[in-house]
Structure formats: C-alpha cells, structure tokens
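Shipment paperwork, digital attachment
Item: protein structure file
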Amino acid sequence: MSKKVLVISSSLRNKSNSEILARQAAKGAEDAGHDVEFITLKDKTLNFCKGCLACQKTMRCVIRDDASEICEKVGNAEVLIFANPIYYYELCGQLKTLLDRCNPLYPSDYKFRDVYLITASAEDGDEVCQTAKGGLQGWVDCFEKARLVKVLSGGGLSVPAEAEQSEEYLKATYELGRNV
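Attachment content:
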C-alpha cells in the first residue's frame, strides 16, 4: 500500500552527509512505490516559536515564514523521515526550531503515524545520537497516534560527502526508505 512520505533534511551544509543519507531513504521509499516529497531546510527561513499559543486556537502560526508551509506538509504526511547532522550530541538547531513551529499540529487531525530519524556524525557509537533521539522522542510523544519507529545513526562521517563512499550507510538508509 502506497504511503505519503515526507523526508526532511535539516543540514545547512553543502554536500551534507545527513542529506546524502536522507536522499537514499527517499529513493528507497520511491522505489517501493510510495509518494515521496523531499524538503531541505537549507535556504528556508525558520523563525523561533514565540510561545503565544495562538496556533492552538487557529491551527496556524502567527509567524509568516517557510515553517508554516512545511508544518502543513508534516501534518499531511503519513510517514516522516527526519535527517539530522549531530552537533554536540543533539538535534541541530534548525530541526528543533521546525519541530517547535509544528505546534499548530498538536490539536489537529494530523496524518503521520510513523516517524524515523537518520543521523550523521563525525563520532561513531550508539551513544552519539541518544540525546537527539530523546529530543525527537519527546516531540513524537506529544502526538498520541504517532511513534518513533527507528533511528539510523551514521557515525564516522566527518567531511562533506563522505557518506557517498559508505556502502553500509547508503544501503541501510535505502532499506529504511523501502520498508516504511
């Protein structure tokens, strides 16, 4: 059964390893017959949430920038795949800002059920992405119909485009996409 899949790359770096892995996941999902949209936060304007909570009544953010359109796409997707570069063992600022700005979805009839996280980091090891996983898990926990299905961590990727040479990570992210 075809699903509507939204892949969001949060890295701002050119030839980003997390974006390379995200594109592999998108390719896998497309090859499996899913309807896939790919968004990069590079060149997007995302302002910080003001915490006014007007969106809880209007289901729209009062801030007019790219986050509103992306948030709407998040709410209409059945599967979300976030790709995140690990900086200081955490979600990057631009992804955290986007998640905060998706607050209008909380009282809505959002469609997403399955959420995935792909990370890329210079350091290797399961502990490297644990705090980032916890940050995304906290967001997912606010949506009772959603679940964090899988976290795929690509460690040892310290220079731009290094992921292109990692058959292991390319295959793993492709398979993640195929199996959403």
